[in-house]
Amino acid sequence: MRQLILTALTGIGEVRRGADLARLLAGALAANGLTLETGDVLVVAQKIVSKAEGRRALLAEVEPSAHAVELARIVLKDPRLVELILRESREVLRAKPNVLIVEHRLGFVMASAGVDQSNLPLSEDGRAALLLPEDPDASARRIRDGLQALLGAAAGVVINDSFGRAWRNGVSGIAIGIAGVPGLIDLRGSPDREGRPLEVTQVAAADELAAAASLLMGQADESVPAVLARGFPYAGREGSVQELLRSRAEDLFR
Amino acid sequence: MRQLILTALTGIGEVRRGADLARLLAGALAANGLTLETGDVLVVAQKIVSKAEGRRALLAEVEPSAHAVELARIVLKDPRLVELILRESREVLRAKPNVLIVEHRLGFVMASAGVDQSNLPLSEDGRAALLLPEDPDASARRIRDGLQALLGAAAGVVINDSFGRAWRNGVSGIAIGIAGVPGLIDLRGSPDREGRPLEVTQVAAADELAAAASLLMGQADESVPAVLARGFPYAGREGSVQELLRSRAEDLFR
Q1: Of B144 and B194, which is predicted with more confidence?
Q2: In terms of CB atoms within 10 Å, which of A100, A108, B128, B250 comes out highest?
Q3: What is the pLDDT of residue A236?
Q4: pLDDT of residue B193
Q5: Which chain B residues touch A190 with a CB distance below 8 Å?
Q6: What pLDDT, on a 0 to 100 scale, did the predictor assign at position A242?
């Protein structure tokens, strides 16, 4: 029986700067009565990766540029938050009240460069914001290697986040960093059942898995920051999230 | 333990025009040793819904308009195929060699209006193409009602397809019709753990489930045209795929 089984990992609690995520995840697997097997994939929420990596910025320490102040008037956001977003971005694609769509320095087209103020504990130093990990593929590899060292299983890791989409309402889970998992499955050249080449050729498998896990993570309730996926059909192939990013030259929608 | 379990339904075989999909799916559940429970969701591939509904067009019977002939030169496709795409569309958004992005008459922004030539048996009458169902929400409701009549369980139904995305490579599973499942989960007003309102407010739950099931369906191998999902956290709420379509006025990327 071909099955994909996703299990929520609960009990991880608040993740602090410097936390060893592989160790936390290994502990959560055990606490949930789960083992990690070769071929499994752990989907880990971006927020806990960013927190462990200390990707927190205090708004009080940010000096907004003139451009940020100007843009903040358009998008109706705190100029210091806009400054952080601009520092994380290569290009602003769209700006209107409450919406700031950018190309993140890592290549993701996304709202607010992933700079997020929700679910951050209010610090004694005032309001803070959380940035995406510096290099999410590297973060995924570190977690994968740590899990292998601790548990002996060659598992894949997907770091996911929730992105808005063009043309569709609502956010959906998406991969921002991967290790031991392919970004794209290439079906180019596979004939269909009549022997004709398929027109649809590449499947964004890592994004589909990120979306699946996102269903168990919820949004307001941060108590499920990781999901164990068993039965992912493409585990074990190596990949990078870069595969998933359409090059600017091929991009028809900017 | 919070789990989402997706199981491939095999053995459905070639679906013919007029087929009773609820009956076929009930048979496949039994043949796979599965029961249908209230709260389950069946994800059904668009192709078998279109086939059952007879949404097949023979290219030999299509007379391309002057506009279709002109557009076919740009996109390097058969003018009769382009004519079918235009008949299924409200608007052409982008046209370049091998790419024709339209707004489908149902509101979906997608490649080639979903008109698909792969995995269609070559007919004696020549080349054929498959169109999307006339009204996929209605198709989903018919399947849902049929399953309830046959098996007594109030299950949800999602009809999925694979769409390309702006900015990202690869196709991903997406919902084109739903019944007994919400399109969007609305988290507006739910405070985060510090009591601040969340900025990200709506989750495209039906699309996430469609993507999850797509992982088990594959692309070239059509032997898995349906997936049983158990543990979908939002089953039982009613919805329409229209919830998922961003209105033209709010769309920043056309």
Answers
A1: B144
A2: A100
A3: 85
A4: 55
A5: 219-220
A6: 97
B56-130: same fold as B5-55+132-247?
no
| A75 lies within 8 A of chain B by CB | no
Q: pLDDT exceeding 90 applies to what percent of chain B?
A: 83
Q: How far apart are CA B80 and CA B78, in angstroms?
A: 5
Residues in chain A, total = 254
Q: Which of B1, B4, B98 has the most A C-beta neighbours within 10 Å, making it the best mutation to test the interface with A?
A: B4
What CATH number matches the domain at B5-55+132-247, 3.40.1080.10, 3.30.1330.100, 1.10.1060.10, 2.30.30.30?
Answer: 3.30.1330.100
What is the CATH number that goes with domain B56-130? 3.90.1660.10
Does the distance separating the beta carbons of A216 and B233 come in below 8 Å? Answer: yes
Residue A117 confidence class, pLDDT cut points 50, 70, 90: confident
**DSSP per residue over A169-231, as a string?**
-SBEEEEEEEESS-S-EE-TT-B-TTSPBPS--EE-HHHHHHHHHHHHH-SS-TT--EEEEE-
- The answer to whether B230 and B195 have CB atoms below 8 angstroms apart is no
ipTM of the complex: 0.94
pTM: 0.94
Domain ranges of chain B: 5-55+132-247, 56-130
In angstroms, what separates the C-alpha of B132 from chain A's closest C-alpha? 16
